[in-house]
Amino acid sequence: MSTEKVDLLIVGAGASGALYAAVLAKAGKKVLILEQGPDWKLGDMVSNEIWGRRLKGGAPVTLEGRDKMGYGYNSGYGSGGSAAHYFAMFPRMLPSDFNMKSAHGRGLDWPMSYAELAPYYDRVAQDIGISGDAKAEERWRPPGQAYPMPPLPSFRHGDVWLKGFDALGMKTARATVGINSREFKGRPACVYDGWCNAGCPTGALANPQSTYLKEARAAGAVLKNGCTVTRILTNAKGDRATGVEYYDEKKQKQVQEASVVLIAAFVSQAPRLLLNSANDKHPNGLSNRNGLVGRYLMAHTGSTIWGMFDEPDVQNYMGTLAPMHWSYDRYGKTTRKNAFGSTLWHCSPAIKPNDIGGIANSRNDLFGQPLADFIKKASKQLARLQAFCEELPNADNRVDLDTSRKDEFGLPMARMTHTYDADAMGLWQAGVDEGLEIAKAAGAKDYWAIRGAPTIHMAGGTAMGKSAADSVCDGYGRTHEIGNLFLSGASVFPTEGAVNPTYTIYAVSLRGAEHMVKNWASIAA
Amino acid sequence: MITMQRRDFVKRVGLGALAFTVGGAEVMLTPSQAHAQGVPYKVLTAEEAKTLDAVCETLLPGAQRAGVTHFVDHQLAVPPDQSFLMARVANVQPPFVNIYRGGIGAINRSAQAMHGKRFEELDAKAQYVFIDAMRQNKIEGWAGPPGPFIYFLMRHDAVDVVYGTVEGIESLGTPYMAHIAPPTRWEA
Q1: Residues in CB range of A249: below 8 A, 6 or more apart
Q2: What's the rounded Cα separation, in Å, for the pair A66 and A69?
Q3: B25 touching A, CB under 8 A?
Q4: Contact A145, A122 (CB under 8 A)
């Protein structure tokens, strides 16, 4: 059964899909988004860590490798994708992230420079509302526009670390965040209650529901939830996408024709969809002649330090999940002696008692009455310091198909295989060592590091690049083998820097979406 | 620094009420009320629930009274994409009952081998020593899902019901500050 053809069919209603939908719908295109999960509205975002888990999960995956991907925590399930529960911490990548291969012979080059992307970072800030101090940030990056709002206020549990940074001669700046420090475009200022991880219902945090998804719907884009896209369909020649096959909310198989198809799915699902769409013209999957679909999966290690401060109340229950302060002083690729790559320091998030980022999990060796005593004390004295550390793209870290496990529609599930290399572990360990020094110098009464390198954020799998030989798509997300099939989101990142991905997802997507509008006639022809 | 202002009156609903069947009729109870009334379980057997209750109470005092087993049992009864369990976030493959059943079974097999008793029949000190060994993967002959992971999951459940609630956070002397308070129905 087929429905009326649309101009642009988007797979996934996360950060990137919502942005493309807004831009293309405003340009007069007929846009349809198919989203697997529920249509979360702002009113569904209950202020509770346990309820917030509904926003996570998504399609089941198989996890393998020594350092298995933290899929369940990082993924999103439903409208907004993982940006429905993200912390809106918005560090930019730096110029050195875009030409690592050329400059150092490591990793991969992006098909664009920082200078080409910078105007889009600036415009996204004006679009969705970003609070920060651009001048202070320009200590580490080329100058650009001011952010539309001043930084958020700080709380004692973030400020306590500054003495430590000073002692080590490290400069800090107020963090740049997608959270309103004052009213912006009719959306209220944040009230600093720390419920970001459960989804922000007020509009203070720039989740897709409050920004691009709202704009997309207002401009006429249609969102259908409960729809699982199973295959991209092509013409007989195999050089054009004709639409997608999907199962609707009643589990009925449907075909949706489209002039252009955009896969804006999560890092696990974008490669899976290309691989599951194999046909006689593309026996290894779509846009996979070079065998690179699924390759270069990346995560961030997090060097995590906790400190107890001998103060009556550091107000760690106040603030946002995004940090108040950060430092790019260790961002240079060759900063660490024995490990290559970037490190970004940041502090501190609001802390709740439970869940992954909670008080109890900061000391997972404690249980019984000692745990209860610790939680009581920590609820007034605990603060967190963390470094995100880069992982270089490694072809062995990948998404492929787990043919031994099928979903309810009979299609193989995605398998994510991931192991950190010596550079990633070296950066993580250097971060742990330095973090403990910062904590000591900050005067923490007790401080400790979390053992084991976590897998935070996810990127890669359908890397963009300059050449069809060494990438899956070009700098606008256009696949090398099918001219009207596009990719967007973190899966197109060739490298990840040491920054949260979403600000860069928005900037790259805005660049790609405007290119699509400008070149619509040739792309959709 | 900003002075915190309480701006939202939050009903003291704890974990919210769940739909339980009592005497053939569906009634709404909080997990702690369900525990107090001895409401039958939907998924767990009574024996499994006794063990889970004892393990969680060892992990965090107060978990039993907060109704941890009724909370877990209810979340095991709903479809996995509606579940609130940490298992969902921790990449456990559904159905989630398998990991609980596997963990409870392994705990009791080891407790039997070591003490000739089920876990819930051990005295408090022996329970504490057992959990301390389980979390460090130091129980010889352990047969089941990895002990440290079972510790991780059940400890999160215990912390969820004791401190992940309006009552729990306020019991620490910290404000809850909900935008949208947890509804009275503890269901998706």
Answers
A1: A224, A225, A226, A227
A2: 9
A3: no
A4: yes
Rounded Cα–Cα distance for residues B84 and B72 (Å): 9
Structure tokens at B96: 């989630």
Instruction: Inspect the interface and report whether the beta carbons of A367 and B4 lie closer than 8 Å.
Output: no
Query: How many Å apart are CA A90 and CA A196, to the nearest integer?
Result: 14
Please tell me what DSSP assigns to residue A338: S
The span from the first CA to the last CA of chain B, in angstroms, equals 37
- Residues A207 and A428: their CA atoms lie apart, in Å, by 29
Joined tokens for residue B109: 């097999």
Question: CA end-to-end span of chain A, whole Å?
Answer: 24
* A-to-B residue pairs, Cβ atoms closer than 8 angstroms: 143
Nearest chain A Cα distance for residue B3, angstroms: 9
pLDDT band at B4 (very low <50, low <70, confident <90, very high): very low
- Give chain A's radius of gyration (CA, Å): 22
Residue A456, classed as helix, strand or coil, is: strand
Dist. CA B102–CA B44, nearest whole Å? 12
In contact, A177 and A322? CB cutoff 8 Å: yes
The pLDDT tens digits for A125-182 are 999 999 999 999 999 999 999 999 999 999 999 999 999 999 999 999 999 999 999 9
pTM for the model stands at: 0.95
Q: Which two tokens stand for residue A323?
A: 């940090």
The DSSP bridge pattern shows strands A398-406 and A412-417 to be: antiparallel
Cβ of A51 within 8 Å of Cβ of B182? The answer is: yes
pLDDT in tens, A492-525: 999 999 999 999 999 999 999 999 999 999 999 8
Q: Do B58 and A367 touch (CB under 8 A)?
A: yes
Instruction: Tell me the pLDDT tens digit for each residue of B5-42.
Output: 333 333 334 456 666 666 666 667 778 888 888 889 99
Helix residue spans in A316-472 (DSSP H)? 359-362, 369-381, 422-442
Within its chain, how far is the Cα of B14 from the centroid?
14
Provide the CA A107 distance to its chain's centre, in angstroms. Answer: 19
- Nearest Cα to Cα of residue A95 among A397, A410, A384, A328: A328
Spatial CA neighbour of A409 closest among A268, A286, A206, A250 = A250
Q: How far apart are CA A56 and CA A380, in angstroms?
A: 29
Helix axes A369-381, B147-163, angle to 10 degrees: 60
For A83, residues 6+ apart whose C-beta sits below 8 A from its C-beta are A14, A15, A18, A76, A207, A208, A502
A239, exposed or middle or buried, with CB in 10 Å at 0-12, 13-18, 19+?
Answer: middle
Cβ neighbours of A379 in B, within 8 Å: 172-174
Backbone phi, psi, residue A362, to 5°: -75, -20
Distance (Å, whole) CA B107 – CA A455 = 29
Considering just the CA atoms, what is the radius of gyration of chain B in Å?
A: 17
Q: Of A508, A490, A506, A509, whose CA–CA distance to A207 is shortest? A: A506
**For residue A303, what are the β-bridge partners?**
A387
